[in-house]
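May I ask for whichever protein you like with its backbone structure tokens?
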Amino acid sequence: MERKVTLAHGDGGELAHKLIQQIFVSAFGNGNDARFDSAFLSLNSGEIAVTTDSFVVRPLFFPGGDIGKIAVSGTINDLAVAGAIPLYMTVGFIIEEGFPFADLRKIVRSLAEEAEKAGVRVVAGDTKVVEKGGADGVYINTTGVGLQRVSGAIDPSRIEAGDDIIISGTLGDHGIAILAARGELGLMTDLQSDCAPLNKMIHSVIEKGCDVKMMRDPTRGGVATTLVEIAEDFSSVLEIEEQSLPIRNEVRGACDILGFDPLYLANEGKVIMIVSHSDSEKVLDTLHRFPEGENAVVIGHVTGKGIGHLLLETPLGSKRRLHRLSGMMLPRIC
């Protein structure tokens, strides 16, 4: 008989204890730390970086990943693109009554394995069980803690005309993979989600001494929304070239059929970098050495300061201004 989560697993009693020990502690380790209500962290002197996020993906399992893998990737990448070294994570699970133990175990193990690969420890967590229909399976909330780098710190105030804009890989893979996995529009594709922790790749770029001035991960809202935010936040004119955008044929075809724009599709394993033009080749060479960065290219440039907006140059040579994503293309994708 398939075991399922019941409301009693959330009441703090014997069943809750067994749930935590058998699924969470067994996956994350840190058995001694589990005896306390707080984790004690060892940090070198200096400033720390802290981020928090929540994950409500549907479906929970999809080609290339699951909600556990995305929870790790999203949290670690938020720290890494800020220039921090990710070290620790906490995870909170909100579990719907009736959720299968087997699926929960898969998600937790996936989260634990990805964290271990990235060199990040899961040091604390929490579980809550809600009535059937109250959580759509599982929601995950995370907090990430990292250490600020002593050298190679990100400083967007140094962005200037002539800098290059680099994307570490193809656009929209995650968004289309999720849409296909839902099976609602009859979209058939072998496309995999790109969700992956990028901290080791980013660390390598910075350790090479590359002059990286700004980084962001283009998740919800996609590349266009992310670049608009950078342009506005740091009073810069950014221009990207439509012909330079790396887009897989499967993504382009799906967007043509469904009327989506790849620039606004979510990505869960990509980083945008604004770098000094003189260091672009060194950055690309480093990115290309990682599977997550093998398709990295320069997609545009910083052309001015003072007015914060993003321009797209079309194949015909004309330019149009891009804005943030308006409305909702794909719900519940990260």
The first strand starts at residue 48 and ends at 55. The chain has two domains: 7-148, 156-322. The two ends are 32 Å apart (CA to CA). Residues 5 and 273 are 43 Å apart (CA to CA).
